[in-house]
């Protein structure tokens, strides 16, 4: 009995020593520090940069045969899903942090999934205590309030990662009128058969509902056309992000040999100048007349008006609790539970980051078809291996109208797209009920254009 008592006493002593040690090494940042300084300390103490960077600070045991293999694989996967270097640099400079990064940080803290248990069990003090969690969550909230204010939402939803679409943004209506005409003008193509609206129909959800769009001479491109609606909110344009602005994007298709196939903008300007009335009207707004910069600027100004506010989901965010059904609300809860709301953020519910297609499983191996140059995604522009198969996240506004889905147009229905995203990005096989609920939610994202609810005329004709 004495021996047992001694063992129990010894265990209690060890436990007390470990608890005391833990409290010493796991102290939260000082409450007197500014929230960004607190966050810097939390990132450092929790070991985030041991994995979430191109040059991870691997621990000593990474050189060991078995443990080292596991550590290096964890670091590889962490970097693939979230490079925290830009966030840390912005934090140190007092600049705004990407709202996608804010959402990712917030989600793992709320879920308790980071730091990983196998990391903090070895690295004492790396786990987040309650005080640190609250500091980090408060920092995220303060960043959103400062840089991504959600002024249209009801107070209870002001810290959501998604914001309602604005009714309008400031524009020059003279340019908008010209841009509208140019957007629908087939003279921007070499054979006068294709306009911007050919692939981005305003009566078909801002797309053409084809896997690949058809250009001059019946040629087909190699990537699915994204919607032009709400593109104003995207941080870059095109799946690979090669255009920084809407004007840059508008300059691409006219000179693309597969799409509009003009040799130069001089060819386009010559045709437009031959239209005396249009030329006169254009010079009243752009005194130097037709040129690439002015044409694309006018189209950009028009496209900035292609906003689709007042979806049922936006009405819900604005405080109308009856706007969504129980089924749709369940879908929104799943949308957040399965991390969709960490990348599909902002007004357009996407378009704010590049993300890897195939984080949990190899999408392209499973697809079973030959890889194309478009499958490289952002890698086409950067030649950085990390960017291979990484794409600008598509916006989900009006997504019920814009089938087929993904950059390769392989997902025929919303159900297909939801199942695939859950599998390849989250590593989850959704139940039929979960798929139905998420699709129900996604259908609430259809908004209004010029005061009328968007419909897809292709669907009406079926």
UniProtKB/TrEMBL annotation:
PANTHER family: CYTOCHROME C PEROXIDASE-RELATED. InterPro entries: Cyt_c-like_dom, Cyt_c-like_dom_sf, Cytochrome_c_Peroxidase/MauG, Di-haem_cyt_c_peroxidsae, Haem-bd. Residues 1-19 form the signal peptide. GO terms for molecular function: cytochrome-c peroxidase activity; electron transfer activity; heme binding; metal ion binding. It comes from the Bacteria. This is Cytochrome B6. It is found in: Cell envelope. It holds the Pfam family Haem_bd. Residues 34-144, 326-446 form the Cytochrome c domain. One of its GO terms (cellular component) is cell envelope. The lineage of its organism: Bacteria, Pseudomonadati, Bacteroidota, Bacteroidia, Bacteroidales. Keywords: Heme, Iron, Metal-binding, Oxidoreductase, Signal.
């Amino acid at each position: 009995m004495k021996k047992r008592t001694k063992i129990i006493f010894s265990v209690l002593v060890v436990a007390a020593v470990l608890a005391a040690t833990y409290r010493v090494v796991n102290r939260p940042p000082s409450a007197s520090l500014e929230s960004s300084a607190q966050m810097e300390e939390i990132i450092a103490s929790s070991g985030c940069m041991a994995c979430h960077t191109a040059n991870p600070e691997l621990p000593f045991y990474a050189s060991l045969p078995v443990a080292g293999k596991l550590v290096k694989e964890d670091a590889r996967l962490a970097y693939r899903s979230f490079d925290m270097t830009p966030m840390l640099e912005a934090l140190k400079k007092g600049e705004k942090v990407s709202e996608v990064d804010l959402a990712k940080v917030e989600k793992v803290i709320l879920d308790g999934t980071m730091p990983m248990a196998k990391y903090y069990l070895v690295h004492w003090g790396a786990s987040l205590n309650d005080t640190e969690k609250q500091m980090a969550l408060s920092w995220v909230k303060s960043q959103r309030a400062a840089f991504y204010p959600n002024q249209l939402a009801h107070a209870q939803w002001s810290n959501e990662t998604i914001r309602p679409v604005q009714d309008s943004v400031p524009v020059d209506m003279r340019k908008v009128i010209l841009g509208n005409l140019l957007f629908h003008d087939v003279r921007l193509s070499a054979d006068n058969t294709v306009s911007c609206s050919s692939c981005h129909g305003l009566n078909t959800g801002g797309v053409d509902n084809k896997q690949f769009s058809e250009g001059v001479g019946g040629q087909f491109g190699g990537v699915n056309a994204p919607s032009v609606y709400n593109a104003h909110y995207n941080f870059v344009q095109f799946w690979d992000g090669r255009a920084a602005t809407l004007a840059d994007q508008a300059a691409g298709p006219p000179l693309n040999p597969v799409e509009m196939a003009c040799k130069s903008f001089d060819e386009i300007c010559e045709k437009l100048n031959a239209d005396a009335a249009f030329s006169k009207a254009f010079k009243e707004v752009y005194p130097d007349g037709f040129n690439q910069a002015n044409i694309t600027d006018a189209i950009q100004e028009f496209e900035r008006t292609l906003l689709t506010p007042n979806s049922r989901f936006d009405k819900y965010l604005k405080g109308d609790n009856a706007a969504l059904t129980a089924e749709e609300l369940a879908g929104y809860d799943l949308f957040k539970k399965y991390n969709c709301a960490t990348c599909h953020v902002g007004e357009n519910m996407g378009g704010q980051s590049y993300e890897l297609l195939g984080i949990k499983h190899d999408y392209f191996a499973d697809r079973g078809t030959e890889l194309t140059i478009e499958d490289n995604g952002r890698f086409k522009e950067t030649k950085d291996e990390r960017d291979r198969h990484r794409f600008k996240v598509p916006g989900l506004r009006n997504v019920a109208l814009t089938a087929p889905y993904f950059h390769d147009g392989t997902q025929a229905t919303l159900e297909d797209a939801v199942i695939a995203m859950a599998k390849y990005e989250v590593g989850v096989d959704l139940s039929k009920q979960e798929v139905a609920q998420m699709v129900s939610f996604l259908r609430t994202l259809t908004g209004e254009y010029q005061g009328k609810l968007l419909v897809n005329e292709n669907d009406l004709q079926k």
